[in-house]
Amino acid sequence: MEKLRKLVFRLCGEPGLPGEEHSAAALLAREIAPFADRVETDANGNVFAWLGQQGAKERVLLDAHMDQVGLIVTRLEKNGLVAVDRCGGVDRRVLPGTPVLVHWAKELAGVVALTEHPEKEQSDRLWVDCGQSGEELRRLVSPGARITLWQRPVSLLGDRISCAALDDRSGCAVLIRCAELLKEEPLSCEVVIQLSTLEEIGCQGAGVGAYRVQPTRAVAVDVSFASQPGVPPEKCGTLGGGPMIGFSPVLDGEMSRRMVSLAQHNGIPYSCEIMGGETSTNGDRIAVSRSGVPTALLSVPLRNMHTAAEVIDLRDVERTAQLLASYLKEVRE
User: Which residues are within 8 A (CB) of 81 and not within 5 positions of it... i.e. 6 or more apart?
Assistant: First the structure.
């Protein structure tokens, strides 16, 4: 697990907010290149990696998104505070006091300011304090700059880790590990791994990527809620409990059921995630690309979603990769 731990920490260490995923994309391209026949990018910043039997009738798209939630600078105040808005669905309940990094001409450390009295109702306004005067700030930051939540990556007990951006760099790690598992396998299908942009603001990267690839089927890999206080247990997976296999009207039931059968056959622990409508993942966008794509969804259980202290169990990353590899080995024309 140590090799996988180092991979996940490397992936989470690169900034990649929606529209500014360049640094994360470059790292992902380097990490997956040893296990792919070729790697390319597109105008939206998506990274694509090809493996398997090129030109096969069956072309399987595997998707995980590289972008993370954070903040965006809206204006600079005369008192030196940076007014910000959310960029993606960051959990504002835990923002006050959160350390952040402002990315512009140079990286600038800051902290989300507590601007309301703790006993008063919190407003929707947010500021970041970088310790600069208003004049100094204007030389270093500009409206439009992205801000990432920051926490030193932490190894918890066992195989659990905590840091920001595990949504969905852990999914990216699943696909890199899956490519590694399949490197020497004589696949009967063509596999295109898509590490996509812009998921946190509408899944646009996955949409244009799927349109380009024209897959015959697809599997989206994301994170979903692990059991924690305040979340209904029937909607949760378990840390260390293996991948969550999605069932939804948007998803292909036959593919989902096959994932369950393969997990049972290979002794991979799993849980079923039942959704009555959309999945709120790239799977929704991929499934309706062009004339439609049969799509499955695998999710890594995660606690504290959209915060700087997300938590996963590395065993779930490994088991999700193993299940996905088992599925691809049996795909035939």
Answer: 113, 127, 128, 129
- The reported pTM is 0.94
Q: Provide the sign of the torsion angle of the four alpha carbons 1, 223, 56, 255, taken in this order.
A: positive
DSSP 231-250: S-GGG-B-TTS-PEEEE-TT
Closest to 196 in 3D by CA, of 217, 177, 218: 218
Task: Classify residue 221 by its DSSP letter.
Answer: E
C-alpha of 86 from chain center: 17
Q: What is the pLDDT of residues 245-289, one digit of tens each?
A: 999 999 999 999 999 999 999 999 999 999 999 999 999 999 999
pLDDT at res. 333:
64
Q: Is residue 233's pLDDT more than 70?
A: yes
- Which residues are within 8 A (CB) of 29 and not within 5 positions of it... i.e. 6 or more apart? 39, 41, 47, 49
Please name the residue ranges forming H helices in the chain.
Answer: 2-12, 22-32, 134-140, 166-182, 204-213, 253-265, 282-287, 314-329
Task: Give the full edge-to-edge strand order of the sheet including 217-225.
Answer: 38-41, 47-52, 190-196, 59-65, 217-225, 295-302, 244-247, 271-274
